[in-house]
C-alpha cells in the first residue's frame, strides 16, 4: 500500500483589510478600513458687514456737506492762508509753546513733590499737600490768572528782604501766566503722580528697604521708574490740554496765539479769518505732540505687554484695505 502523497496546504490569499479589495481606479491605493479619514479643508466665507459700508457712506456725505458749507460761507480764505505764516502769528505760536512747556515743567515737578507729601505719614506734610490740591482744583484757572495779574492791588510792594520792587514791575503778563497755569497744573499732576505711585506693589518698597535703601532713594530708583507707565498717558493728555488752556492768558494781555490773532483782527476787522488761523495753529501743535505722546507711551509699555499695539499708520492701512472683522481659521487670519 503506497503512502499518500504529501499535499501542500492550500495557500490562502492574505486577508485584505481594504474595502472592495484590489486597487482603486488608476492604481490608487485604497483607504484602509480602520484608518481615520482626514477632514476636509474648511472653506470659510467671511461675513460681509454691509452696515459698515452704509454708515461710512452716510458719514462721508455729512462731512462733504460741512466742507461745502464752509467753502460757500462768507470767509475770505486767501486771508487765512496769508496770515498763517505772518510774523505776529508765528510769535504768538512760539509764546504759546514756550509758556506751555514752562508751566507743564513746573506742574510736573511740583506735582510730584505734592504727591510724595500727600502720601507721607507726616500729618503736617499730608495736610498741606491736601489743602493745596483742594484750593487749586476747586477754583477756575481763569480766576487764578486774574488774581496773579492783579496781585499789586493787595501787595503794592514786593519786599523779600534781599529784593524790593513794585509788584506791577514784577508781575508781568508772562510771570502771571506762568504762575497761574503752572501752579494750577501742579494740583492735577499731584493726583496723577499719586495714582502712579500707588499702582506700584508695596513689595517693591519692602524689598528695597530690606536691601538697606532709604525712603527717598527707594522713591527715586524703584517706585517712580515703575510708576511712569501709569503716569505718562494722563500727563500727555494734560500737556495737550495745557496747549489749549494757555489761550486763557489772553485775558491778562500775554502775547500768546489767540491774543496775537485778535490783535490783528481788531485792525483789519477780519475776525473769523484770524480765529481760523489760530484754530489751525492749535491743531498743528496738538497733533505734533499727540504723536509724540503716543510713541512715548509705546516706549514705556515695552515691558508690560508681549506685543505692542499697532501704530496709527498700521491701523489706517489696515482700515483702508478691509471693512470686515478679521477671523481666525486654522491659525490664519482671513
Give the topology, please.
Blueprint (H helix, E strand, L loop, with lengths): L49 H22 L5 H7 L3 H32 L4 H16 L2 H9 L7 E3 L4 E3 H4 L2 H26 L3 H9 L4 H31 L11 H12 L2 H30 L11 H10 L6 E2 L2 E2 L1
Antiparallel strand pairs: 1-2, 3-4
Helix pairs in contact: 2-11, 3-4, 3-7, 3-9, 3-10, 4-7, 5-7, 7-9, 8-9, 9-11, 10-11
Task: Please explain how this structure is put together.
By secondary structure, the protein is an all-alpha fold. The protein contains 12 helices and 4 strands, in the order αααααββαααααααββ. The chain has helices spanning 50-71, 77-83, 87-118, 123-138, 141-149, 167-170, 173-198, 202-210, 215-245, 257-268, 271-300, 312-321, and strands at 157-159, 164-166, 328-329, 332-333. Helix 2 crosses helix 11, helix 8 runs antiparallel to helix 9 (215-245) and helix 10 (257-268) packs antiparallel against helix 11 (271-300).
Q: What is the CA-CA span between the terminal residues? A: 86 Å
- SSE topology string: HHHHHEEHHHHHHHEE
What's the rounded overall pLDDT mean?
Answer: 82
Structural class based on helices, strands and sheet pairing: mainly alpha
Q: Major sheet: size, sense and barrel closure?
A: 2 strands, antiparallel
Amino acid at each position: 500500500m503506497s503512502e499518500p502523497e504529501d499535499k501542500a496546504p492550500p495557500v490562502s490569499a492574505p486577508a485584505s483589510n481594504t474595502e472592495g479589495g484590489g486597487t482603486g481606479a488608476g492604481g490608487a491605493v485604497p483607504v484602509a478600513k480602520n484608518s481615520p479619514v482626514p477632514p476636509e479643508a474648511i472653506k470659510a466665507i467671511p461675513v460681509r458687514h454691509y452696515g459698515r459700508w452704509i454708515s461710512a457712506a452716510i458719514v462721508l456725505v455729512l462731512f462733504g456737506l460741512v466742507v461745502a458749507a464752509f467753502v460757500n460761507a462768507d470767509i475770505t480764505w486767501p486771508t487765512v492762508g496769508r496770515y498763517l505764516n505772518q510774523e505776529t502769528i508765528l510769535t504768538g505760536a512760539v509764546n504759546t509753546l514756550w509758556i506751555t512747556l514752562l508751566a507743564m515743567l513746573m506742574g510736573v515737578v511740583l506735582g510730584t513733590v505734592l504727591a510724595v507729601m500727600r502720601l507721607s505719614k507726616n500729618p503736617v506734610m499730608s495736610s498741606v499737600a491736601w489743602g493745596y490740591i483742594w484750593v487749586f482744583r476747586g477754583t477756575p484757572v481763569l480766576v487764578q490768572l486774574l488774581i496773579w495779574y492783579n496781585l499789586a492791588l493787595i501787595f503794592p510792594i514786593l519786599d523779600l528782604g534781599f529784593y524790593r520792587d513794585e509788584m506791577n514791575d514784577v508781575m508781568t503778563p508772562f510771570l502771571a501766566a506762568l504762575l497761574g497755569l503752572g501752579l494750577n497744573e501742579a494740583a492735577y499732576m499731584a493726583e496723577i503722580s499719586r495714582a502712579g505711585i500707588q499702582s506700584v506693589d508695596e513689595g517693591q518698597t519692602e524689598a528695597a528697604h530690606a536691601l538697606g535703601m532709604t525712603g527717598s532713594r527707594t522713591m527715586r530708583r524703584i517706585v517712580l521708574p515703575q510708576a511712569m507707565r501709569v503716569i505718562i498717558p494722563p500727563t500727555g493728555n494734560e500737556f495737550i490740554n495745557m496747549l489749549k488752556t494757555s489761550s486763557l492768558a489772553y485775558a491778562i494781555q500775554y502775547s500768546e496765539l489767540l491774543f496775537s490773532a485778535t490783535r490783528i483782527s481788531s485792525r483789519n476787522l477780519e475776525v473769523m479769518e484770524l480765529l481760523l488761523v489760530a484754530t489751525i495753529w492749535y491743531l498743528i501743535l496738538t497733533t505734533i505732540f499727540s504723536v509724540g505722546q503716543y510713541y512715548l507711551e509705546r516706549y514705556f509699555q515695552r515691558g508690560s505687554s508681549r506685543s505692542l499695539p499697532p501704530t496709527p499708520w498700521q491701523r489706517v492701512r489696515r482700515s483702508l484695505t478691509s471693512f470686515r472683522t478679521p477671523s481666525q481659521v486654522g491659525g490664519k487670519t482671513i
